Automatic annotation (TrEMBL), chain A:
Database matches in InterPro entries: MetI-like, MetI-like_sf
Membrane topology: Multi-pass membrane protein
GO cellular component, one term: plasma membrane
Subcellular location: Cell inner membrane; Cell membrane
Transmembrane residue ranges: 26-48, 87-110, 122-143, 155-176, 197-222, 259-279
Subunit structure: The complex is composed of two ATP-binding proteins (UgpC), two transmembrane proteins (UgpA and UgpE) and a solute-binding protein (UgpB).
Nucleotide-binding in keyword set: no
Pfam families: BPD_transp_1
Keywords: Cell inner membrane, Cell membrane, Membrane, Transmembrane, Transmembrane helix, Transport
The species this protein was found in: Paradevosia tibetensis
Listed name of the protein: sn-glycerol-3-phosphate transport system permease protein UgpE
GO biological process, one term: transmembrane transport
Gene: ugpE
Known function: Part of the ABC transporter complex UgpBAEC involved in sn-glycerol-3-phosphate (G3P) import. Probably responsible for the translocation of the substrate across the membrane.
UniProtKB/TrEMBL annotation, chain B:
Membrane topology note: Multi-pass membrane protein
Protein's name in the database: Sugar ABC transporter permease
One Pfam family named in its UniProt record: BPD_transp_1
Residues passing through the membrane, by range: 12-36, 77-98, 107-128, 213-233, 267-290
GO biological process terms held by the UniProt record: transmembrane transport
Gene3D superfamilies linked to this entry: MetI-like
Organism of derivation: Paradevosia tibetensis
Cellular component GO terms held in the UniProt record: plasma membrane
Similarity annotation: Belongs to the binding-protein-dependent transport system permease family.
Keywords noted in UniProt: Cell membrane, Membrane, Transmembrane, Transmembrane helix, Transport
Length: 294, 297
């Protein structure tokens, strides 16, 4: 192979590319394409199916591309579930939870990063340990506690237990550690209160981390299913879109129209996916921060 | 330090500690306490009656309660083990593809992989239930092109659990790939250069440099993969309802069914405690395994 490389004229670059090192380049390229296609396929199929006629969605063997793409399935979704109401519920859950998590995480992260106090490391470890606790372990008593607070079957019941979390505190502490002490001391000299320091001095200097946390929290709570399903107890008015989707599925068992379910799924997927496409740098940076430094 | 009084410390930590305390710590302690009680989830905690270890004897007995629970425990263990066994090597392979600089397309692949991680599990479950459909689904059609016969996927007890593993891996692999890429960027390039001077082949470099230096990343990834795997709920709740023949009855689904839907709060709590103990054992074992490997490196 090396001899081929050596004897080829420099002018014709194309043929030697398939030899030696360039062969491995071709393999890498093929693998990248293959992995991308496999990863994207289910989502592409979801969108394609949402544009098919009911007959096309049930055809054997399956029809891949709709003959005349149409939005009928999307219109039908609106007949079965109140799409607007579900989206508003999802947005209320995701926005309120995210806002609260940002505030509580910034403050606690600041305290763990910049305050010296007895038991700091113990308290921090104990809080971080909750990150590794699967929600099902606490689900049964939590359901009862939220009932005691009178929050069952309401959006408040979905939101309140999630106003703070260990991941946010951890992420903020990691980044706030890097904020120079001089900056904070100078603000104290000027007579700034500690709260003012957190939100006006520290927060602006960890903006990428705040953006990452905001996106993670938003997507996580937009997508979450187990807790809202448990606490809302069949109160369909309060259902977020992900739970309304399960109603589409039970409706579909009678109607035999997969396009309907796929249209609903496409709608539910759009907000987190759009956020991600525009802001993926922040997601990736924060995983790097937690995975490596952690 | 002088201006950081107890007051400002309380203000900073108060909200987060209160929320996590009331909604995670207290419930966790209550779960442990309830596991020794006879208690209906539909009544207040004050109605609980201490019954010692009876719940634990029940969930490991040969009655239908015990058989269902042990089945769910085994299903969850298999599901978790398969998830980790597939996710770790796959994420290293994909991570290398994303990380390499010889061929363009790495960042594109990362974007595609990670975007699947943004998709709600419920949508993933719905889409895969159609992809898996034995007659109308494209997967059996695609297999047919390669001369492979139709698979039963979710409709047979032999293949249903594994089908959900695949669905789970598809949804989560982007996250683990990004973790691996983060680990790869931490490996000093000088190590590879030195190895090349010594005439090391690509596979030798991978085994002696890449893998040992990824041990910490792999440990973290395994822990996260295990924690995520025991949380599988949506595909089971929505598509299989634990079937066929209990083959996909996993713990999160089973505990919720017993503890919330059947309101057997004491029994459900005993199951949750067993899950928590199993997780601790699994994670300690992982640390021992990777700790040894890390030392050797």
């Amino acid at each position: 192979m090396t001899t081929t490389l050596a004897t080829t004229e420099p002018r014709s670059n194309e043929r030697p590319r398939w030899n030696g090192i360039s062969l491995s380049k071709a393999i890498i390229f093929t693998l990248i394409i293959l992995a991308s296609v496999v990863a994207a396929f289910p989502l592409v199929w979801m969108v394609l199916t949402s544009l098919k006629t009911p007959q096309e969605t049930m055809a054997v063997p399956p029809v891949w591309f709709p003959a005349t793409p149409n939005l009928d399935a999307y219109r039908q979704v609106a007949d079965v579930i109140s799409v607007g109401r579900s989206f508003i519920n999802s947005a209320i859950i995701a926005v309120f939870t995210t806002g609260a998590i940002l505030v509580t995480s910034l403050m606690a992260g600041y305290a763990f990063a910049k305050y010296q106090f007895k038991g700091r490391n113990v308290l921090f470890s104990v809080l971080i340990a909750t990150m590794f606790l699967p929600p099902i372990v606490t689900l049964i008593p939590l359901y009862r506690i939220v009932g005691y607070l009178g929050l069952n079957a309401s959006l408040a019941g979905v939101i309140v237990p999630n106003l703070a979390n260990a991941f946010g505190i951890f992420l903020m502490r990691q980044f706030i550690k890097g904020v120079p002490d001089e900056l904070i001391d100078a603000a104290r000299m000027d007579g700034a209160s500690e709260l003012k320091i957190v939100f006006q001095i520290v927060a602006p200097s960890v903006m990428p981390a705040i953006a990452a946390l905001a996106l993670f929290a938003f997507v996580y709570h937009w997508n979450s299913y187990l807790w809202p399903l448990t606490v809302l107890q069949g109160n369909t008015d309060q259902y977020p879109i992900v739970i309304s989707l399960s109603r589409l599925l039970s409706y579909n068992r009678g109607a035999m129209n997969t396009g309907l379910v796929m249209a609903g799924a496409t709608l539910a997927v759009l907000p987190p996916l759009i956020l991600f496409v525009f802001l993926q740098r922040f997601f990736v940076d924060s995983i790097v921060a937690t995975g490596v430094k952690g | 330090m002088q201006r950081q009084t107890i007051g400002s410390l309380a203000v900073m930590l108060g909200p987060a500690v209160a929320v996590i305390g009331v909604f995670i710590f207290v419930p966790m302690l209550l779960t442990i306490w309830l596991s020794f009680q006879n208690w209906s989830t539909q009544t207040g905690f004050e109605t609980a009656q201490f019954i010692g270890l009876k719940n634990f004897f029940d969930i490991f007995s040969n009655t239908s309660i015990g058989r269902d629970f042990k089945g769910a425990l085994v299903n969850t263990a298999i599901y978790t083990a398969l998830s980790v066994i597939i996710i770790l090597p796959l994420s290293v392979g994909l991570g290398l593809l994303v990380h390499q600089k010889h061929v363009k397309g790495g960042v594109f692949l990362r974007t595609v992989l990670f975007s699947t991680y943004m998709v709600p599990m419920i949508a993933v479950a719905l889409v895969f239930s159609k992809l898996y459909s034995p007659t109308e689904g494209p997967l059996n059609q695609i297999l047919g092109w390669f001369g492979i016969g139709p698979q039963t996927w979710l409709s047979s007890p032999n293949t249903a659990l594994f089908s959900i593993v695949i669905l789970n891996v598809w949804q989560q692999i982007g996250y683990f790939t990004v973790l691996v890429v983060a680990g790869l960027t931490q490996i000093p390039v000088s190590l590879y250069e030195a190895a090349e001077i010594d005439g090391a082949r690509a596979d030798q470099k991978f085994r002696t440099i890449t893998l040992p230096l990824l041990a910490n990343t792999m440990l973290f990834a395994s822990v996260i993969a295990i924690i995520n795997a025991v949380q599988v709920f949506e595909p089971v709740a929505l598509i299989t309802q634990g079937g066929p023949v209990n083959s996909t009855n996993v713990l999160t689904y089973h505990i919720r069914r017993v503890g919330i839907e059947r309101a057997q709060g004491g029994l459900g709590s005993a199951m949750a405690v067993t899950l928590m103990l199993s997780l601790i054992v699994a994670i300690v074992a992982l640390f021992a395994f990777f700790g040894r490997k890390g030392d050797r490196a």
